[in-house]
Amino acid sequence: MNKSELIKKLADETNIGLDEASDIVTIFVDTVKKSLLDGDRVEIRGFGSFKIKEYAGYTGRNPKTGESVAVKPKRMPFFRAGKELKILVNS
């Protein structure tokens, strides 16, 4: 399911217009993004949680040339499924 399919499903399930459903989904996604950028963890009970993981820089290797390469530190979004979602998927 992509964002436009989610918007359509929300509009169909709640009998609201596509524009309003689009606004709701966009506000939700933007709020999650902003919270993560602010360093907050986002938890949706029964679904899962989102957080930013920080990875330190390290010296890697170019597999083609064997040359050492400095890999910069980075931040990556991370999702951990909640217990209820894990049970649902595995049942």
Describe the structure.
It is a single chain. With 91 residues, this protein is of the alpha+beta class. The chain has one domain (3-89): IHF-like DNA-binding proteins (HU Protein, Chain A, Irregular), CATH 4.10.520. It is built from 3 helices and 5 strands. Helix 1 packs across helix 2. The longest helix is centred in the N-terminal third of the chain and has 20 residues, at 18-37. The two termini are 21 Å apart. The mean pLDDT is 95.
SSE inventory with pairings:
Layout: H1 3-14, H2 18-37, E1 42-44, E2 48-55, E3 58-61, E4 68-71, E5 74-81, H3 83-89
Features of this protein?
91 residues, alpha+beta, HU Protein, Chain A, three-stranded antiparallel sheet, 5 strands
CATH superfamily: IHF-like DNA-binding proteins
What is the total number of structural domains? 1
Q: Structural class per helix/strand content?
A: alpha+beta
The major beta sheet can be summarized as:
3 strands, antiparallel
